[in-house]
Amino acid sequence: MEIHGFNKTTLLDYPGHLASTIFLGGCNFRCPFCHNSSLVLNPAGQPTISEEEVFKTLNKRKGVLEGVCITGGEPTLYSGLPQFIDEIKNMGLKVKLDTNGQNPKILKDLIAKGSIDYVAMDIKNSKEKYGLSIGIPNFDISKVSESISFLLSSAIDYEFRTTVVKEHHTAEDFISIGKWIEGAKAYYLQAYRDSDDILSPGLSGYSKEELISFANVVKPYVIEAGIRGIES
Ligand code: SF4
Hints:
With 232 residues, this protein is α/β, with parallel strands linked by helices. The chain has helices spanning 37-41, 51-60, 81-89, 104-112, 130-134, 142-153, 171-180, 208-218; strands at residues 3-10, 19-24, 67-71, 94-99, 118-122, 157-164, 187-191, 225-228. Helix 4 packs parallel to helix 6 (142-153) and helix 7 packs parallel to helix 8 (208-218). The radius of gyration is 17 Å and the shape is globular. The chain has an eight-stranded mixed β-sheet. The chain has a single domain (3-228), classed as Aldolase class I (TIM Barrel, Alpha-Beta Barrel). Bound molecules: iron/sulfur cluster. Iron/sulfur cluster (SF4) binds next to loops.
């Protein structure tokens, strides 16, 4: 596993749990609003942390930590992911997986084996504008759709989430997303934040009020909808 970041303690990444977060390099999408672009475009150029070091720290924090969040990049690109997760689970920790949904097979296998406890899957945009928001024109959304359908029918805890960008998303897109994920347990709109590591600089975010209005558009379709990442 190419581990490029390790946040020893977070209360934000794994809802309701004190967790560590592991960042893996590489991604098969090119979202213009990606704020980990160096991990996506040049993972080999980023410093790495050994698995040994990560497990040493997790062991030291046994009894304090409740879970581990595995994020990226896109974690499901790694063939060694199931084994890596099993090692974490064997320590008695819960595992949350962040994914872009492009690998439904790994997702299904991990859930079937009981290897993961929570999934956060990105919904980048409405079906019609998916390619725009992942930087891949004419993108075939079938695998993303398969992951959505699978999570909707699964007993695992999960959330869907969208990073909301003025240049990409309109109220109509949220109606479309709501219909696509109809019946979902939880959906969150995340405020876009500029940073030095944005893949395509020059994008902008909506105000808190605008995000709330978009969340209200999705609410009729899902059990819970909310906003994240913007101050009150
Ligand atoms: S936002 Fe996520 S899915 Fe998109 S390029 Fe970045 S790491 Fe990949």
